């Protein structure tokens, strides 16, 4: 549960969090492949959040039964959905989490089909009331190409989070330089003549690691400000 949101006089410190105040960070991997590049990025964000004292969990979208929205419009009148499947399970975890991170590979300049189905099915969480209002949100994305649609996909993910009332944090260290548009990855390594060399894993890219780690720290800091 998101408990004690207004319970402390000042921002939560790392010591307070590690001293027993529970903060929860949930990541949802929208990739159609478990444990690959998007999952790797999300895991780095979560590792860093954990090091800052957060409880963390990664959900793989492929583990859940998610039917497409029927556009029945029940959600215009009720904070519920007419379809019974696993969306409620994920939704409950989102509502219990202080922060939700969405990850998606770029598929044709957009999020994956499975993640989009899930996103549409969350409409009941914001039509009558914004049930996630004020929670912290963040997004990561990865594409094959160096400029393969990461920026658009990141915008789509962040806009979705904002429409649910989440406060989106980015991967910038405010006391440091600006290195990229966000926690975005590519498998491009270099071009030799006409031959592209690809990284076999997103973990080979130090910039991605840096941005994901910073995002993890920023998320816990934002939770501390929100709950403090
Ligand atoms: C259906 C499909 C569409 C894709 N579209 C793009 C694209 O528009 N731009 C791009 O750079 N890469 C594209 N890719 C490549 C993936 O973004 C890339 O392989 C990514 O690392 C996959 O993430 P994952 O390892 O978490 O599965 C596409 C891959 C698939 C399967």
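-> sequence recovered:
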């Amino acid at each position: 549960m998101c408990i004690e949101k207004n319970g402390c006089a000042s921002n939560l410190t790392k010591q307070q969090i590690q001293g027993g105040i529970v903060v929860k960070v949930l990541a949802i991997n929208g990739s159609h492949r478990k444990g690959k590049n998007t999952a790797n990025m999300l895991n780095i964000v979560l590792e860093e959040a954990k090091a800052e004292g957060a409880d963390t969990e990664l959900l793989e979208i492929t583990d859940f039964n998610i039917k497409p929205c029927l556009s029945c419009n029940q959600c215009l009148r009720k904070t519920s959905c007419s379809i019974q499947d696993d969306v409620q399970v994920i939704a409950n975890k989102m509502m219990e989490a202080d922060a939700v991170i969405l990850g998606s590979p770029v598929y044709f300049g957009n999020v994956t089909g499975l993640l989009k189905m899930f996103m549409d099915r969350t409409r009941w969480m914001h039509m009558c009331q914004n049930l996630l209002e004020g929670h912290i949100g963040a997004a990561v994305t990865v594409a094959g190409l160096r400029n393969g649609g990461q920026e658009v996909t990141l915008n789509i993910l962040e806009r979705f989070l904002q429409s649910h009332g989440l406060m989106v944090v980015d991967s910038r260290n405010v006391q440091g330089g600006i290195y990229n548009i966000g926690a975005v990855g590519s498998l491009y390594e270099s071009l030799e003549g006409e031959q592209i060399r690809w990284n076999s894993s997103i973990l080979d890219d130090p910039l991605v690691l840096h941005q994901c780690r910073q995002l993890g720290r920023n998320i816990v800091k934002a939770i501390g400000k929100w709950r403090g």
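The pocket of flavin mononucleotide is lined by residues 31, 33, 36-38, 105-109, 142-145, 148-149, 187 (CB under 6 Å).
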